[in-house]
Amino acid sequence: MSGSLYLAWHYIRSHRTTTAILVASITLIAYLPAALDVIVDSAATHFRSRAESTPLVVGARSSPLELVLASAYFDKPHEEVLRMEQLQRIEKQELGQAIPVHTRFKARDRLIVGTTSDYAQLRNLRIAEGRMWEMLGECVVGSRVADELGLGVGSKVPVSSKTAFALADAPLRLNVVGRLAETETPDDHAIFVALRTTWIIEGLGHGHVKDAAHGSPAAVEYTDITKENVGSFHFHGDRAELPLTAVIVVPASQKAETLLMGQYLSPEETVQIVRPVDVMDTLLAKVFMIRSYIIAITTVVSFVTLLTMSLVIVLSIRLRRAEIATMSKMGCSRFAIASILGSQILILLVLSSVSAAVLTLITDAYGAELVRFLVF
């Protein structure tokens, strides 16, 4: 058998192009279903871990999935709003910790997240450089935002919003005071500010020259908030009516969670409460169902491809009749000839299996990074 393998190996080496095509084809047939499994499993783990760290989310009645994606994954600005009174409603009952989130605006195409220091504690966010925000107009940037936009402590980031101070040509500029340590979560891709700063961006508060009458030439609104002018910033209207996009709730106990969930079941209720993990499980169930269809289709295609390759191998053997006849005249038995041809096929399968296994291991090792790159 060793002699058959030796001859088969040298035959394959002398036909490198044909061998490479066959090995690549068989490798892809084995690798694609395995890679799909690995990537989907990595995506499921990634999405579920974020959802599990976000116990409950309260938001305006709309798509639960859009609410969760906007408040936990920061995929895009969320236009549906609720009022501060909903946050106060939860706080008064003392059933858990309520963390406000406001995600309606962007700065240099990165989402601005208005919240409180409680959010940083919930996500265990750490400062890698600088400090946390302390006053209006200050922001802390995620690690990927800092790297991609070249931001550091002291940088200025103009808000990408026409509503800032109601002046399209003079938007508010955020002052970067800190950079977050990398977390490999959506927090790396966001800009964090105090909740009140988002209300300034929305035009619900402003600052201008002290004692200047509204509408007078002296009442020019500031576009940079500094220690010198921050005292002039103020808000109009009832605080309970100020907007949020969501409230993340960390229930004090299982009983508190049940009580909170029951309060939003009424059809007349304009606000909804969702468990992000349940929402993501529903989404992932559909993804897994689609994956099973894709694997079934891939299996059929792979089977057809293998049949075609078998036909190619059979035809190639028929084309090698003269070569086989020469081997027979040299004294090779039918078994020896069959062993050489079988060894060639065996070597192709081994090379393909090893290649597919290596590619699958690489995909498994870097699957999480690939998912984060594709999603965020």
Structural overview:
Strand 3 and strand 4 form a beta hairpin. About 5% of the residues have low confidence. Helices cover 52% and strands 17% of the residues. The chain folds into 2 domains: 138 residues, no CATH class; 219 residues, no CATH class.
The main β sheet shows up as: 10 strands, mixed
Shape: elongated
Distance between the termini: 53 Å
The SSE order reads HHEHEHEEHEEHEEEHEEEEHEHHH
Number of domains: 2
Number of strands: 14
Count up the helices.
11
Low-pLDDT residue spans: 163-169, 211-220
Keywords:
single chain, 376 residues, alpha+beta, 2 domains, ten-stranded mixed sheet, two-stranded antiparallel ribbon, 14 strands, elongated
